[in-house]
Amino acid sequence: xxxxxxxxxxxxxxxxxxxxxxxxxxxxxxxxxxxxxxxxxxxxxxxxxxxxxxxxxxxxxxxxxxxxxxxxxxxxxxxxxxxxxxxxxxxxxxxxxxxxxxxxxxxxxxxxxxxxxxxxxxxxxxxxxxxxxxxxxxxxxxxxxxxxxxxxxxxxxxxxxxxxxxxxxxxxxxxxxxxxxxxxxxxxxxxxxxxxxxxxxxxxxxxxxxxxxxxxxxxxxxxxx
Length: 225
Ligand SMILES: *[C@@H]1O[C@H](CO)[C@@H](O)[C@H](O)[C@H]1NC(C)=O
Ligand SMILES: *[C@@H]1O[C@H](CO)[C@@H](O)[C@H](O)[C@H]1NC(C)=O
Fold this sequence. Notes:
Layout: H1 2-20, E1 34-35, E2 41-42, E3 48-50, E4 77-82, E5 96-102, E6 108-113, E7 119-125, E8 128-133, E9 141-146, E10 151-154, E11 159-164, E12 170-176, E13 184-185, H2 186-191, H3 199-205, H4 210-218
Antiparallel strand pairs: 1-3, 2-3, 4-5, 5-12, 6-11, 6-13, 7-10, 7-12, 8-9, 8-11
Helix pairs in contact: 3-4
The structure holds 2-acetamido-2-deoxy-beta-D-glucopyranose (NAG) (2 copies).
Organism: Herrania umbratica
Family: Belongs to the germin family.
Domain Cupin type-1: 63-214
């Protein structure tokens, strides 16, 4: 009888661990160019695939990532994503890219997480104070100041940020281990949700005065991506 329970528990663990590691699947074919209209496609996991015979170079191409973008906004940064929505040929391949521009003197990519991807960032220009925080109970901050050519990794799911600590523009590129890594910007999700979270919840969670919570919820939370 005990053996049975063990087997059931083992099977359950095996099932849940395989589900837990089921981020972007490994490709099951050479190419799978994403399309939104299912009528002309072949179904696999991820998005629908175009008939491979109809794939073109344009399906695997994006241009303009050399161009800095305007960082004049409340947080002083802008993220240019290059994921499966920009390059449909990334479908099922488990990888994507971003360019991030930061305004001088404090331009910030605010604390956020990518629910589906680890990130590896390389600094192109400027000086960035970067960091991530490990999960409970330690909540250890692992941080560093980076300069051009420096590379830093933000593990999947962990809250992280980058701030320009120089007097000039800063820019970085980052690869992410998902065709669609997703972004949850902490302040926006918590104080800018739609509809708003009951202020009593946030008053207790953040140990704040109820009016401070209402003030924060009334603010406009800029999305930099
Ligand atoms: C599919 O839909 C997404 C989201 O609406 C859009 O960004 C993308 O350009 C579309 N892709 C194609 C190949 O039509
Ligand atoms: C950048 O954006 C700001 C705010 O929208 C605007 O006032 C400014 O003219 C823009 N700068 C450039 C160089 O486009």
